[in-house]
Amino acid sequence: MENLKEKLTGEREKARWLMLEEHNKREALLIVATDLDLIDVAVAVASDDVKLIKTLLDSEQLKRPDETMVKLFEEETDFNFNFVIIQPYVLAQKIEE
């Protein structure tokens, strides 16, 4: 598990909404709440930790962007995100400035 965490940490990248928008259109983008550790969530998804993922989805700490979020991301072009790809998903987290 630690090797997976190290691997995903090394694969974390930064992007603006324009780059993530394509993944959202194919419904593969999941937004991770800013109070969570992106890599820990990515490990849970990669490890198929159904219980934790269900908890995060139910609490909306992990969710597909809704229309309001998308509109905000499109309008505020200065937003930056960290993201990790866990096929077939892209997990993204807004970087708090």
UniProtKB/TrEMBL annotation:
Domain of life assignment: Bacteria
InterPro entries, per database record: DUF2288
A Pfam family annotated for this UniProt entry: DUF2288
Name of this protein: DUF2288 domain-containing protein
Source species of the chain: Halobacteriovorax marinus
